[in-house]
C-alpha cells in the first residue's frame, strides 16, 4: 500500500487535487488515495492521457532551456505543482548557474515539499500564493529578494490556465504579469485544448475534474493565443507541445496533441 504523506492543516485529502494528481501520474509519491483514484480513472479512460502529461513536462524543459538561452536568468513559475524531474531551476541553472527562480503555488502541500527540496538553495524560493491575485506575488518577500522587474524575466504558466475559469479572467491574470515584465522578457504558456480531440474523451475529463480541486477548462487555439496579450510568439508559434522545438521522434508521439504550448517575447 502506498504510504500517505503528512496532511498539512487546512487540507482535505478526500478531495482530489490537480497538482497531486499530476504528481502521481509522473511517478511522484506526494499524493493521497483520492488523488490516485481519480487519476487512475483518467488513465484508464484516456489512452494517451499519461503521455499528454509527460509531453507537457518535456515541453517545459525545452521552453526553459530556450528562454535561458536568450539570456534570461530569473524566472517566476506560477502554479508550479509538486517538485519532479526537470524542475525550472534545474534546467535554468544548467545555462546560468546563478539563475533565480520563484515557485508559486496555492497548495500548502506543494509549498512544503518545494521548501524541503530547496532548503539549501539561496537562489530559489517557494511562495504560497494564488496566481489569480497577482499583487500577492509581486508584494512577496521572495519576489522582492530574487526577481528584478527592471530586467528581463521569464514568467511561466505551465498547464495552469486551464484550471482558471472565464469568470476568473485568465487573460487579465496573464496581463498583470506581462505589464510588469521588462522588454526582452519571455512568457511560457501551455494549455489543454479540445481541438481535434474526441468529444467523448473530453467529456470524461470534464466530468472527472468536477470532483477535483479545480475544473478543467479546455480552450481552442485562438483563445489560447489571446492569452499571450499581444506579445510576439517565437517560432513555431502556438503549437501542440510535442511539436515545439522537438525532434521527429517527439513530434510523432500522440499525447502532445492534448496540449498547446508556446513562448512569446515582450
TrEMBL record:
Q: Which UniProt keywords apply?
A: Methyltransferase, Transferase
Q: What Gene Ontology terms describe what this protein does at the molecular function level?
A: methyltransferase activity
Query: What Gene3D superfamilies does this protein's entry cite?
Result: Vaccinia Virus protein VP39 (3.40.50.150)
Cite the CDD domains for this sequence: AdoMet_MTases
Which Gene Ontology BP terms does the record give? Answer: methylation
Which superkingdom?
Bacteria
Specify the protein name. Answer: S-adenosyl methyltransferase
Which organism does this sequence originate in?
Answer: Actinomadura meyerae
